[in-house]
Each structure stands twice: as C-alpha cells, then as structure tokens.
Write a structure and sequence with these properties.
Length: 99
C-alpha cells in the first residue's frame, strides 16, 4: 500500500474506533512530516488539547490510534502493557474488545 492509502485506512479505522465510545461523527488525522507533528482531533473541535482529556480518555484515544496503525502493517503478534491503567470499567472493557 502507498502512503495515501495507508493514511486513509488509518483514518477510517481510527474514526470507527472513536465512534464506538465517544459517538464522534467525524475525526481528523493530520501529519506534518516536516515538523514531525501528529494531530488527532474531532473535526468539530470539542477538545483543543489532549491536556484537557482525562487519563482514561487519553488511554482510549491512544489505543484507538494504535489499533488503526496496526491494520496497515502485518505483525505476527502485538501486545499492549497497562494500556487501561487510567480507565474506568466501561472504557477498559471497550478497549479490551478492540485489542
């Protein structure tokens, strides 16, 4: 796959995973290769900084992004350690279903 196809697939999967918990209708992934910056956001802009997210929300967003990246690369296996440490029971269960 080329970079554009990978990016589109990553975006679609990230959006699907984020919809599962937060019921977001549209998300955006912006990669600035020159500045080496990655921005993940809801298009409507409800959250302007990850600093305003709870620990559980940050964990969920990180897991959602990792899952979307893993779908673009073939792995014999993958694992996450303590990805749910800041999550409540509902988010922990939802993240575990995706992993």
């Amino acid at each position: 796959m080329d970079q554009v196809a990978d990016m589109n697939q990553t975006h679609q999967i990230f959006e699907a995973v984020m919809k599962r918990l937060y019921e977001l209708h549209e998300t955006d992934i912006d990669i600035d290769h020159k500045e080496q910056i990655l921005r993940l956001s809801e298009v409507e802009g409800a959250v302007s900084s990850t600093k305003s997210l709870s620990g559980g929300e940050r964990s969920y967003s990180t897991v959602a992004f990792l899952i979307s990246l893993w779908n673009c690369v073939v792995h014999p296996f993958f694992f996450l350690e303590e990805y749910d440490v800041f999550s409540d029971e509902y988010n922990r269960h939802t993240m575990t279903l995706f992993c």
